[in-house]
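User: You have something folded?
Assistant:
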Amino acid sequence: MRIPAHSVCTAIRDDIVSGVFERGSRLTEEQLARRYGVSRVPVREALRTLESEGFVTTRRHAGAQVAEPTEQEAADLLDVRALLEPLGAARAAQRRTEAHLKVLRGLVRLGQERARRGQGEDLRSLGGWFHETLAQASGSPALTALLTQLRHKIAWMYAVEPAAQPVETWAEHGAIVDAVARGDAERARALTALHAESSLLLHRLKRPERGRVRVSQHVVNTAGARN
């Protein structure tokens, strides 16, 4: 059974984002193939994809290694997100389906309920699902892919503190969904821009720690693998 390269790519990316592979650490095809229980072919394809995304760099005679973005490059990620997320919300107001609205409203209800109860451990994942769904509602696969890649890279570069007033944060999410539901692209854009700006203060740049690769329990998802 051949494991798809995208499954291997997801596994390596997740381990980079979580810090299992530290910035600057070397990545060899043999090492990764053993780690994920796959052949070198999907590993090679995955490394090419991750290099195009900026997670991996390849140097002549040195091979692949985890990228080491500068502080300026990390700051640029937040600036780019602040431009693209409002665009995605505006597009969602024009192109969303009833299915998108149903999911968005359900996430807002859950988020508001968890926020009122002080169940902060669920809010980060709910927030991620909200923004992923909002991006998908834009009806633009290219924009959705860019925003997904940005979220991965921001999670890699930044630690995000819990919001001091999570009820207000989820009220902002609810207002964005209301604008999207009404088809009000400009209001959806403006509200999302304000939301992105307010979240900037919660981001703290991670400082890389040098050391050996940590042990991970990550297993490549083989579901749907063919031949």
About this structure: Strands lie at 26-27, 56-59, 63-66, 158-160, 203-205. The mean pLDDT is 89. The chain has nine helices and five strands. The radius of gyration is 19 Å.
